[in-house]
Each structure stands twice: as structure tokens, then as C-alpha cells.
Amino acid sequence: MKQLFLLLVVVCFVSNAGYAQLMKLRLLDAGKRTPVEGAFITVDGKTIGISDSNGLFKANSLLIHPASKILLHHIEYKDTVLLLTDADTNTIEVLWGQNSEAELEEVVFSATSRSNQAIETSPLKIEVLGKEEVSEEASVKPGNVASLLSDVSGVQVQLSNPSSGNSNVRMQGLGGRYSQILRDGMPLFEGFAGGLGILSIPPLDLKQIDIIKGSASTLYGGGAIAGLINLISKVPTDKQELDVLGNISSLEEKNANVYAARRYKKMGYTFFAGVNSQPAKDVNKDGLSDVSKGGNVIVHPKLFIYPTSSSIISVGYTGIADNRIGGDMLRISDAGDSVHAYYEKNQSTRHSFTCQYDNFVKNNRLSVKGTYSIFNRTITTNNYQKVARQSNYYNEISYNV
After folding, report:
1. Is 103 exposed, middle or buried (0-12, 13-18, 19+ CB in 10 A)?
2. Nearest to 184, CA basis, from 203, 204, 210
């Protein structure tokens, strides 16, 4: 009797195994005929799997009985319902149409790190000022990002010379020479050029600002002992962007900035131009300027080339001409004499050229960067004149896996 029972169990198992065949779904984009990855397959209200990188999903036919209601769900496609009348052992191809009713905004996260590491697992404290904060600063203080950085705890923009308007970024209580300033991960404001750099960076063409508080000298050298600030530029999108901004402050500072950007199929561009002027101001009425008289012109065009869907080439130029004069208010207004003779005049020009290549393959990234900068500065006072020229270059090749 026991042997007969075991025989019936084996027959039932073999019979069910014969029906437990493999069913395959292949999900394809209806327009491009490309695989749809990451689609959720739900049967009778229960999710049983996700499509792979080839758009394939495999399931035991016992999980999907005849007349099952199969729901296909993907964030970029319309929900689709399949009704099967019987178990099918062949691969069922589903041509899927994209959801035209809702358009998703492209969101890209950047973290200031030379390793392929998530920001939440980084041992460094990274603070990110996003698009909202930068856009707000562009309308409040469009001339430079000094005011925005001053609002961050642990970061202080210190005016080191009222006559020239020279400022330093102090982090964690250390001097300005220990804070590194980067533009898109590249040091464009090195050495002698660093002091006036923070006053020549407008926020209108910035997407976000990454701030590392604390020593990052292992990755970025001795200039980042106190920390570093990485200014991330905007990139073009499929929609035409055009921003025109004019501003007059209570100190009679005048700003006029223009930003335009657009991405086409194989090429794209961003363009920024700005003009700023500031009259000298003696706030405490001691006869010496507390705010120097000055103005600058900034031009920052950038060209993007997309050879393939996974690679980007960008070439950019930044040109800045800056003139500042401070000292005795009578001397600044050309009414000085032997008593009112003190003044300090700064004339500077900066030319920076950047080139970058990025290639993204799955989770791997190849990045090649190169910069070359020329900075000229002439300092003239009533006692002496100093003429200086600085040039620097920077190259980097990295491959993250």
C-alpha cells in the first residue's frame, strides 16, 4: 500500500513538472526596438520579477495559470496588461509605447570625489548646494558667489584687502591658502590667481556647488588642507534656455548677465556673459574706501560634442578682465594732493582653456581632463608698481570601475 502511494506521488510530480514549463517575455520599445530594462512584472497583484538588460523575463508557467492578468509597469512607459489564455513556452515579444502624458525631468547628481563612491558612504563630509540655492543667489547677488558661500557653516569669505577688494575663503578656521577652489573638478584659480578668483565667479551659469569641509589633501594636494569648493557648471538640455538678469544694489553695484544653452542631436553649447561695476564707497566716513571702485567683464562659452550616446567631449574658455581701485576717496575721484595721495589699483586678466572627455559604459567611467590658464595682474600704488604673470596647466586621466 505504501509503495502504491509513493508511485502516485511520483506520477503527480512528473505530470506537474511536464506542465511547469518556462515562459519568456521579451519587452521592446515600440519605436526604437530596444530592450526595456527594469520593468516590473505583476501577476494577479503580486510582483514576480523584473526584466533584465536584454528586456527578458523568465518565469515558471506554474506561477502564471491560464487567464492570469499580467501587468507590466515601468516609470517611462504606459502600464500594459497581458491576458494569456494558456501557458506559452515560446518567447512572447511585447512592443511597448512610451508614456507621452508625463515627461520626467533629468536629474544628475555630482559628488566631489576622485573615487567611484556614493556620497552617503564617503568618509568625507560633503555638503551640496543645489540648483534651488544657486538660482536664488543669482537673483540676490548676481556678481559672484561670495555671499552664497558665506551662508554655509564653517565657511567664511574674508575681505583681506579693502583697497583691492581681495577676498579669501577660510574653511574650518584655517587661512585662505589652505582652501582649494575648483571649477568642474579642475583647479583654475591656483596660486597668485586665487585671491581675486572668488570675486569673479557669477552664479548664473552654475548648476550646484560641492563643498568638502576638512582635509582633502590626500586627493587634491596641499591646497585642500582646510577643504575644497567645487563649482559645477550647467550643461545644455534639449530645451532652449535663455536668462537675462539685471541688478542694482543698495551700494549702487550694477550687474548685467546673460546665459543661453541648448543641446542638439550631436552638439550643444552654453554661453555666459556678464558685466559688473561698483563705485567706491566710504561706509564709516573715515575718508578711505571700504568698498573699492571696480568693474569686470566675464565671458564663458562652452561647446559640447556627443560622438556616441555614452561619450561627451566639452571644450570651454573663460575670459575675465577686472579693474579695481581703492584708497583715499579724494585720490580715487582725482581730487587728491600730497596729503590725500594713497591709492591701490589692481588690473588683472585671466584666460582659462578647458577640455574634457567622458565615456560611460555601464558602471565604468573613463575621464580625461586638461586645463591651461594665464593670469596677468598689475598692482600700482602711490609708492610702487608690481607686474606679475602666472601660467599653470593641469591634466588628469581617471578610470573608475
Report:
1. exposed
2. 210
Q: Which residues pair with 43 in a beta bridge?
A: 46, 70
SS3 198: helix
Task: Give the strand pairing for 91-96 and 22-29.
Answer: parallel
Q: How far is CA 161 from CA 184, 332, 346, in A?
A: 28, 16, 11
Question: What is the grid cell recorded at 255?
Answer: 550687474
Say which DSSP state 68 is in: -
Task: Name the phi and psi angles at 5, rounded to 5.
Answer: -65, -40
- Euclidean distance between the first and the last CA atom of the chain, given in angstroms as a whole number: 63
Task: Report the alpha-carbon distance of residue 15 to residue 13 in Å, rounded.
Answer: 5
**pTM of the full structure:** 0.68
Which pLDDT tens digits describe the chain residue by residue (401 residues)? 544 444 444 444 444 444 445 667 788 887 777 888 888 888 777 777 888 888 888 776 545 555 567 788 887 887 877 766 544 446 677 787 766 454 444 444 444 455 555 555 566 677 888 888 888 877 777 878 887 888 888 888 887 777 777 777 888 888 777 888 888 888 877 655 455 566 678 888 898 888 888 777 667 777 778 888 888 899 999 999 999 999 888 888 899 999 999 999 899 999 999 999 989 988 888 889 888 898 899 999 999 999 988 899 999 999 999 999 999 999 988 888 888 889 999 898 999 999 999 998 877 889 999 999 999 989 999 899 999 998 989 899 988 88
Residue 265 in grid coordinates: 542631436
Look up residue 34 and give its three cell numbers.
530596444
Length of the chain, please? 401
Contact at 8 Å (CB) between 295 and 277? yes
- Is the CB of residue 112 less than 8 Å from the CB of residue 129? no
Please list, in sequence order, all residues whose beta carbon lies within 8 angstroms of the beta carbon of residue 375, skipping any fewer than 6 positions away. 192, 193, 348, 349, 350, 351, 389, 390, 391
Containing 277, the helix (H) or strand (E) segment is strand 267-278
Residue carrying the nine cell digits 487567464: 67
> How many angstroms separate the CA atoms of 68 and 64, rounded?
6
What's the CA gap between 210 and 221, in Å, rounded?
17
Closest to 36 measured CA to CA, from 93, 102, 103:
93
